[in-house]
Design a protein that fits this description.
The protein has 486 residues and is α+β, with helices and mostly antiparallel strands. It is built from twelve helices and twelve strands. The strands form three sheets. Strands 2-1-5-4-3 form a five-stranded antiparallel sheet. A five-stranded mixed sheet has the order 7-9-10-12-11. Strands 6-8 form a two-stranded antiparallel sheet. A hairpin with a 3-residue loop joins β11 and β12. The mean pLDDT is 90. Bound molecules: adenosine-5'-diphosphate (ADP). Adenosine-5'-diphosphate (ADP) binds next to α10 and α12.
Length: 486
């Protein structure tokens, strides 16, 4: 069969083709629109995300700015603290310390008004901006509530104690800090009217607390310093009083001592005249110048004569001691060879040395020139050698030495006698002191010899001392000044 294509069927076919092409195109467009819709939704989400991010950035920027401001504020307050410490660390006066709290410090702390008052009597010590009327309100409000301040360092506007003041009309943002150390509340800092808006920050409170703690420590130091100063003052006063008492006692002792010297001197003088006459008669009697005596009477008279000699000695020594004490003894110090004097004195005493068979040693240089009163040093040597002979047993040994030590000459008289107990070493130089021992009980003595020795050496402005060991012996030392022509 042959299909014949008519013009109509050709048109239908054409239309059908067009419809198919259009349908394909439409489907394609619809797909594109759906894709675009997804893209738009995605873009909307991205925009939303970006918006969120932007908001976050703005927020952190604000926070950063605030943080930066806070850090700057803290730094300013730390500088304030540093400056306050530098200007007040050496202050030892309360008023001067309070005067450091001026309007600059109060403003730097962030407040318009500031006040410091004593804790005990609420007496105002520093005031920036408060009127008399405000002070009256503060005083009335705090008088009975001061003990609350002992409990804490800082009270902000929320604390009852501050609320009362705010209600009383002394301003907003009242803050009270106690200035204390070691549980002692010394003063109170009251701040009011913040310069910047907003509440008081924690960091600000901390700085205010630190400043108050520092001021408390300063006041504590000042208190301790004042106490120390007072104690020092009292001590000085007491020392002065005691010194005056001592000077007074010393004067009294001097008066008594002078009276004693005068008494001893006048008694010795009074005794010397009759004694000289008794001595004269006893000597003449012993020498039988008034006729022969029966042996018994002669023996007794001899004893009387010996004792009179001792009495004369004693009276002379007493007179010398009182003369030295009262400064009436004429002393002629001049350069002189001490070795020569030692030799002469020992020669003079050699009969007594021989009598007791005592070995005698001289440990002296050829010659040694010293400043001395020859007669007085002779008496010193006689006294020391006599004592050595007296307290050294038969066949013992006595050594006299004389050595140059620096600018001094040290003379010593040693014996091998029975020594002196430790507790008596100081006492033997006192007048009339004699150690209670068998020799002293047997042989009479005056107890004045060493006292005279000490005074003579003191008059030369030199020293005397003794070293002794019971059972071994005793050594007496004295010094003299070497003369220039040594
Ligand atoms: P006196 O010899 O007249 O007793 P002193 O003043 O010379 O007085 O001496 C005081 C005392 O010191 C003596 O009684 C004696 O006890 C003691 N004394 C002094 N020299 C010696 C010595 N060389 N050895 C032991 N004792 C001594």
């Amino acid at each position: 069969m042959i299909l014949s294509i008519t013009p109509l069927s050709g048109l239908v076919f054409f239309l059908f083709l067009v419809i198919i092409i259009l349908s394909v195109y439409l489907i394609n467009k619809l797909q594109t629109v759906a894709g675009l819709r997804d893209t738009v939704a995605g873009l909307a989400k991205t925009v939303q995300n970006l918006d969120h991010q932007a908001k976050l950035i703005i927020k952190s920027d604000i926070e950063l700015k605030l943080y930066q401001e806070e850090v700057e504020d803290k730094l300013n307050k730390l500088t304030l603290l540093k400056n306050l410490i530098i200007s007040s660390i050496h202050i030892l006066d309360k008023e001067q310390l309070y005067s450091q709290i001026d309007d600059k410090i109060i403003n730097d702390l962030g407040f318009k008004k500031g006040l410091i008052f004593n804790f005990d009597d609420l007496y105002v010590k520093a005031n920036v901006g408060f009127l008399d009327h405000d002070l009256e309100i503060i005083k009335n409000s705090l008088t009975h509530k001061r003990n609350v301040l002992k409990g804490n360092f800082l009270f902000d506007a929320e604390a009852d104690i501050c609320k009362d003041l705010i209600n009383g009309g002394i301003g907003q943002d009242v803050l009270i800090a106690s200035i204390k150390a070691r549980e002692n509340v010394y003063a109170v800092l009251l701040l009011s009217e913040r310069i910047a808006a907003g509440g008081i920050k924690i960091a600000e409170k901390e700085i205010i607390t630190i400043i108050c703690m520092y001021l408390g420590q300063c006041l504590d130091n000042i208190k301790l310093f004042e106490e120390l100063y007072r104690t020092k003052d009292e001590l000085e006063k007491k020392i002065k009083e005691r010194t005056n008492e001592l000077v007074k006692s010393l004067r009294e002792i001097e008066v008594v001592s002078r009276a004693k010297s005068d008494f001893v001197s006048s008694v010795s003088h009074e005794l010397r005249t009759p004694l000289t006459s008794v001595k004269g008669f006893s000597s003449l009697l012993v020498e039988e110048k008034f006729g022969k005596l029966p042996p018994e009477a002669k023996e007794r008279l001899k004893k009387i004569d010996e004792n009179v000699n001792k009495l004369v000695d004693m009276v002379n020594t007493l007179l010398d001691i009182s003369r030295i004490e009262s400064g009436r003894m004429e002393i002629k110090i001049a350069p002189c060879d001490i070795v020569k004097v030692i030799k002469e004195t020992s020669d003079f005493l050699s009969p007594q040395l021989h009598a007791k068979e005592i070995k005698f040693n001289l440990d002296v240089p050829e010659a040694l020139s010293v400043y001395m009163d020859k007669n007085l040093i002779e008496r010193v040597l006689i006294n020391l050698i006599n004592n050595a002979i007296k307290f050294t047993p038969k066949a013992g040994m006595i050594t006299i030495s004389c050595k140059q030590e620096g600018l001094k000459c040290v003379v010593s008289v040693s014996d091998t006698g029975f020594g002196i107990e430790e507790e008596n070493l100081e006492k033997i130089f006192q007048e009339f002191f004699r150690v209670d021992n068998p020799i002293n009980r047997e042989m009479r003595g005056t107890g004045l010899g060493l006292s005279l020795v000490k005074r003579i050496i003191e008059n030369h402005k030199e020293k005397t001392w003794v070293a002794s060991k019971v059972g071994s012996g005793t050594t007496f030392y004295f010094t003299l000044k070497l003369s220039e022509n040594v």
